[in-house]
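re: the backbone from monday

yeah here it is again, tokenized this time
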């Protein structure tokens, strides 16, 4: 099972996207848990996730968030600007699978 956390500024758009990613994973029969969060208290939540997906509007904070994820042993990916459009959940799920694969191959 892959554990994913989608983060955005306030948590609203990440909640919507997390729901869509769960649905896409179900259609593809991929075992994931996807939750959503704001950046508040993020460092405490990272230890329990495999992949952190960062909303595009947090691009300026990506380096900082990526370092937090790395310190917690979580992979990290910046979501593209198109993520909230049609098919964005498939793009996000592919990012998760790629990051999990990259992490497994570097171990």
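seq for it, each position gets an aa:
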């Amino acid at each position: 099972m892959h554990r994913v956390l989608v983060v955005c500024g306030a948590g609203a758009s990440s909640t919507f996207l997390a729901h869509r990613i769960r649905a896409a994973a179900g259609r593809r029969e991929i075992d994931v848990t996807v939750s959503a969060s704001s950046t508040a208290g993020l460092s405490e939540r990272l230890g329990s996730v495999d992949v952190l997906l960062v909303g595009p509007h947090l691009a300026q904070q990506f380096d900082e968030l990526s370092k937090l994820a790395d310190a917690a042993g979580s992979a990290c990916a910046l979501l593209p600007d198109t993520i909230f459009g049609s098919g964005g959940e498939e793009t996000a799920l592919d990012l998760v699978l790629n990051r999990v694969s990259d992490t497994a191959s570097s171990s």
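The chain is about 45% helix and 20% strand. Helices lie at 12-27, 42-45, 62-72, 88-106.
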